[in-house]
Amino acid sequence: MESAGLKPRQLALRVGVSGKTVERWVGDSELIPHPRNREDVSKALGVDEEMLWPKAVRERLKTGGDREILHSYPYRSACPSTVWTELTENSTEELFFAGYTNYFLWTQLPDFPRTIQRKAQEGCRVRFLLGDPAGEVTRQREQIEDVALTVSTRIRITLENVEKLRGVEGIETRFSSAQDAVNHVSLSVFRFDDEALVTPHLARLVGHDSPLLHLRRIGDGGMFTRFSEHAEELWTRGVPV
Description:
By secondary structure, the protein is α+β, with helices and mostly antiparallel strands. The protein contains 12 helices and 8 strands.
């Protein structure tokens, strides 16, 4: 750090920490400052963070299956609607909406019906896998959630909107089978070509309060493949609407 023209105490004034703190950073190669401090020091010295703390940079690099996780959100509602819109717009081969209700797609994404109609007409396969609004699992889930906008109502919102697209080639809709309903209601998978948004549903929480993972396929056998195969299995045994 001194070779960059700043003594530790001078650097401390620039960064807003004590001189002893900077001296510890200099004297202990295993001591890594907080990200904000690393950024401030790098700017003050005019060098890349990797030159000063290569270990911190290496630890940020993903390896193995982690590479498929582009982003994680503690709540589905924290994922910007622009992410959903861009993924839908950029898909050319496969749009598979395997949420149990899928209702929020119609209420939160701008011009969603026209977008998927156009996608289908351009040759993209569009599928909706829904829970059976009259099924026993749906009834049980409604009791668990205990909210005004019931599960069956949310499913019927999707059915109503899909009905308006009847006759558009390339759009398919199925109910998950009765034996698969429990597995379906506990995990929502939304596929956009080689990317997916996945929501594991927690306890009594509704979908928008459950966490979400944004995945991108890198190779066979990864998280993207496993979640996609789960949805495909449910679809295979599904019942046409």
